[in-house]
Amino acid sequence: MQLIIPKDYDPKLSVRETQEAIRYIRETFQDEFGKQMNLSRLSAPMFVKKSTGLNDNLNGVETPVSFTMQEIPDETIEIVHSLAKWKRWALRRFGFDVHTGLYTNMNAIRKDEDLDNIHSIYVDQWDWEKVITKEERTEETLKKTVRQIFKVMKHMEHEVWYKYPQAVYHLPDEIHFVTTQELEDRYPDLDRQAREDAICKELGCVFLMKIGGPLKSGKRHDGRAPDYDDWELNGDILFWYEPLQRSLEVSSMGIRVDADAMARQLKIADAEDRLKYPFHQAIMKDELPFTIGGGIGQSRLCMLLLGKAHVGEVQASLWPDEMIERCSDAGIQIL
């Protein structure tokens, strides 16, 4: 268990005021985000059949929570890690046109997560996906979309400042684009987290691009499943977060794999056995639309905008007793 205790921490808002602010941020952001990105809200599953191949494999080592159900006894049912694959399937199923898309409130359990100030076993995010053309599978499209999302986040900062001026955490005015290889070249002696911290402290907000594939060193900056993001056209939105003196990831996103990218990445990841699943077969046969999509952490965004020291201040999850006690002693109000 890792825990950062900021010196002289002041939560600014009471627990009840924080709960009101959480509701306001979530409702206001999703409405503005959907409008700016031309997305419709859809309901989404909390669990899927393992046999569909629709669950997110994350780094390939995390085990999903699974169960069987009375009426389908021969199927293993898995609680989702994210809806990265399901969304693309849904865009085809519901007949979305080019430049339209969906967003959904996604709730998941990642039971193998290492807990700290920003990581919880409970995941709540806006999962979103949008149809693009094959010709739009470019870095230009990716950067344009990132700037749109950053603009909505900045708009939310102003909205929160209007209602909670004593509590709002001010965001930088610009987002910068940096690749993982540029980061390795710049900080060859630092590990992944230290590199992200260093570049975010310098620039304020960064979209870190090209995550998943091996770098010149032979190492990967970070793990990324091989069967949804194109590793050459993806990235994370990271902010320098002064209260914790570290970087804070708020969104992971990317242009999704086409048949060529999937085949290449599955081979690199030694995961070609996944081609047996219906989802992967549909990609290889060009039966699914070309898309861009990602997730935006709901609790992470609330934490960022309200200057909170612990994600447990803006979501109800489970934490070790020792962590709860240390937080309480420091004025960190775990829900």
Automatic annotation (TrEMBL):
Name the UniProt record assigns to this protein: Aspartate--ammonia ligase
Protein's GO biological process: L-asparagine biosynthetic process
SUPFAM superfamilies (alphabetical): Class II aaRS and biotin synthetases (SSF55681)
GO cellular component, one term: cytosol
Keywords associated with the record: Amino-acid biosynthesis, Asparagine biosynthesis, ATP-binding, Cytoplasm, Ligase, Nucleotide-binding
Biochemical pathway: Amino-acid biosynthesis; L-asparagine biosynthesis; L-asparagine from L-aspartate (ammonia route): step 1/1
Catalytic activities: L-aspartate + NH4(+) + ATP = L-asparagine + AMP + diphosphate + H(+)
Entry's EC annotation: 6.3.1.1
The encoding gene: asnA
Major location category of this protein: cytoplasm
Entry-linked NCBIfam families: asnA
InterPro entries cross-referenced by the UniProt entry: aa-tRNA-synth_II, aa-tRNA-synth_II/BPL/LPL, AsnA
Subcellular localization(s) per the UniProt record: Cytoplasm
Provenance organism: Pediococcus argentinicus
